[in-house]
């Protein structure tokens, strides 16, 4: 388990994640930092869901800044896939049995009752809350399907956010589609790693993803740096008043700290 969150139900806990594979194995100008990438891809750790939970894919990005000031950008698509290991499913059910037993004991303790007199002394409110807890906060290996989070990540020298997002979504569709793509998955990964070059400064580049073409543009030497993030999302996340306040702070050269989950 990642962190001390044992009071949470097992499906609300987070578990330790790890990098399963990365390609290419090593790049001289960009050595792979396994611990950093693992933490930034899954900052909250590995998580589990059932068919009753929302499992829509989520996209986020990160920046790795080195001591010399150089930056690399990561774009991550997190999705959930079905757990096929019966051992893991059994372990999850065992965790729930232990968790429910602890909740049962705490409800009993709050009612100042013994196990023998539980039925007579537990009040109706506690009984109702315990029943709801066991009904909505449970995992039954014979009834529920268990899913676990997984990430696919692209690490790039420039923040081509839209292009990376489109490629990752297309790759995810290819992985989950019942109809396989025209070529093996490895060929699309090899293409974007070894055959798609950086566009020259001031030029655009069009390359083919898995299903549709993708276009990315690189600013010229006299243009502003690349900022490929949609401004609409900033307004949606911060709101108009907060954004105006942040912009004012920027113009006044104040120090700004943005804190979020």
List the helices and strands and how they pair.
Layout: H1 34-41, E1 48-50, E2 58-65, E3 71-82, H2 86-110, H3 118-121, H4 124-136, E4 146-156, H5 161-176, H6 185-195, E5 204-208, E6 213-217, H7 231-238, H8 240-251
Antiparallel strand pairs: 1-4, 2-3, 3-4, 5-6
Helix pairs in contact: 2-4, 7-8
Question: Your description of this structure?
Answer:
Helix content is 37%, strand content 17%. Among the domains are: 1-106 and 133-157, no CATH class; 230-260, no CATH class. By secondary structure, it is α+β, with helices and mostly antiparallel strands. The two termini are 19 Å apart. It is globular. The model is unreliable at 117-122 (pLDDT under 50). The strands form two sheets. It has a four-stranded antiparallel sheet with strand order 1-4-3-2. A two-stranded antiparallel ribbon has the order 5-6. The longest helix is centred in the middle third of the chain and has 25 residues, at 86-110.
Could you provide a short overview of the structure?
The protein contains eight helices and six strands, in the order αβββαααβααββαα. The protein has 261 residues and is an alpha+beta fold. Among the domains are: 1-106 and 133-157, no CATH class; 230-260, no CATH class.
